[in-house]
Design brief:
59% of the residues lie in helices and 0% in strands. The chain has 5 helices and no strands. The two termini are 18 Å apart.
């Protein structure tokens, strides 16, 4: 998420992918993901987590690390992060 704030253009690319997924737009295959993520060696957290199945299908040779967290702890961490971001942009 921090990288998204440093690279606003990346946000537009992620929004294209989100819109395609949620509004029945074009299919994102490896070619489309390479256009968005070709400069990356890894993706983590949000928004990449929204596309776990699509990314695994596009990059079957990639190593995937799945971490499980307690839902309540995860939610509390997210609330803390959002409060920190809100403070940073005041």
């Amino acid at each position: 998420m921090a990288n998204a704030m440093n690279n606003p253009k990346d946000n537009e690319l992620w929004l294209d992918a989100i819109n395609a997924k949620t509004q029945g737009g074009k299919h994102f295959g490896r070619e489309q993901w390479d256009q968005r993520l070709g400069h990356c060696q890894a993706v983590t957290d949000f928004p990449a987590a929204l596309f776990a199945h699509e990314l695994i299908s596009a990059y079957p040779e990639a190593k995937v690390i799945l971490s499980n967290r307690d839902v309540d702890q995860y939610e509390n961490a997210g609330i803390h992060e959002r409060k920190s971001l809100t403070f940073a942009f005041r």
